[in-house]
Amino acid sequence: MSAETPPCQLLERQSETYRDWLWVAPPHDAWLNTVGGSVWSADAAICHAWRARGRPVHAELAPTLTAPVPGAVLFWPKTHALGEWWLLALCAALPEGTPLQVVGEHQGGVKRVLKSLAALGLGCRKVDNARRCTLYATRTAPLSLSPDAAWTTFEAAGLNVASHPGVFGHGKLDDGTRLLLETLPGALGDPAGRHLLDMGSGDGILAAWLGIRGASVSAVDSNAFAVAATRRTLEANRVAGNVWQSDVFGDVTGPFDAIVSNPPFHQERAVDYGPAARLIREAPDKLVRGGSLILVANAFLPYPRVLADTFGDVTTLADDRRFRVYRAIKR
């Protein structure tokens, strides 16, 4: 099986066999199935795919790696600060001197890895360069910085919000979420006592806002960093709620009186409508009769058609030219 993504195509041409290596934050690429090893990923879909193949999976943000690994490959993310977190986390989790390779695309900022490694006091050499990607090699070492230093907080909508690199809207309130929060009072009425789901919870601001107003809240995200951020946000605002990781509705039961969402449409740099389309098409099975799906999206996204095809009717509750808030009701 040949590699499909440019970073894996670069790895495929190396002399290293990568047998039993640890793959960190990898993309979906069938070539990885052929080389063995284990995965450490914050992405629920990636973890599910590896588990389905019977491969070792580490989904925690601070896993205990009981089996030694001969080396690790970090796929550099588009968010530079998240890449630096992975470097800190790998140095904390792996024995000193473990071979560590970092691979990524040039347009994703992988060339900045050199400065990051130098700032951490880690040596580095360039191994290869092709397919508009570069592969670097270093080794893990004890570091004075902790991965926990990446966590920050900010205030928005009267709430204390936890934030981490790689979580949507990191460090600030997204304008689409702001419009959704402004629209929810009219869209939901009094949420007290109602069972509501924040799908794609991100930093948890929607779940906290609903919980403060008396709703019984559940929150789900496919990203482990977002799940941790949501839990921290609920705790900071003294809101009780259930929070867990799921690939859209894969591990969600329900039913709910309403589902609210600011769904993502990017996978790294690529536009990907798939998760949002799944959210819309599967939402009726998770709603009580008369329950609502309320979501905000960039105005150019083709969600009204999917909503209409799924629910029959869709109402635009707000439109500021950049974002629109839609409501669809299960009849």
What does this structure look like?
With 331 residues, the chain is α/β, with parallel strands linked by helices. It folds into 2 domains: 6-144, Rossmann fold (3-Layer(aba) Sandwich), CATH 3.40.50; 151-329, Vaccinia Virus protein VP39 (Rossmann fold), CATH 3.40.50. 29% of the residues lie in helices and 28% in strands. The chain has 10 helices and 18 strands. The strands form 4 sheets. Strands 3-2-1-4-5-7-6 form a 7-stranded mixed beta sheet, with helices on both faces. A 7-stranded mixed beta sheet has the order 12-11-10-13-16-18-17, with helices on both faces. Strand 1, helix 2 (32-35) and strand 2 (38-40) form a beta-alpha-beta unit. The model has no long low-confidence stretch (mean pLDDT 94).
Quick tags:
331 residues; single chain; Rossmann fold; 10 helices; seven-stranded mixed β-sheet; elongated; 2 domains; alpha/beta; 18 strands
Short description:
With 331 residues, the protein is an alpha/beta fold. The protein contains ten helices and 18 strands.
List the helices and strands and how they pair.
Blueprint: H1 6-12, E1 22-24, H2 32-35, E2 38-40, H3 44-52, E3 57-58, E4 72-75, H4 80-93, E5 99-105, H5 113-120, E6 125-130, E7 133-139, E8 152-156, E9 159-163, H6 175-188, E10 195-199, H7 205-212, E11 216-221, H8 224-236, E12 241-245, E13 256-261, E14 266-267, E15 270-271, H9 274-282, E16 287-298, H10 303-311, E17 315-319, E18 323-329
Count of all domains:
2
Which secondary-structure class do the elements indicate?
A: alpha/beta
> What is the level-2 CATH architecture name of the largest domain?
3-Layer(aba) Sandwich
Bulk shape: elongated
Average pLDDT over all residues: 94
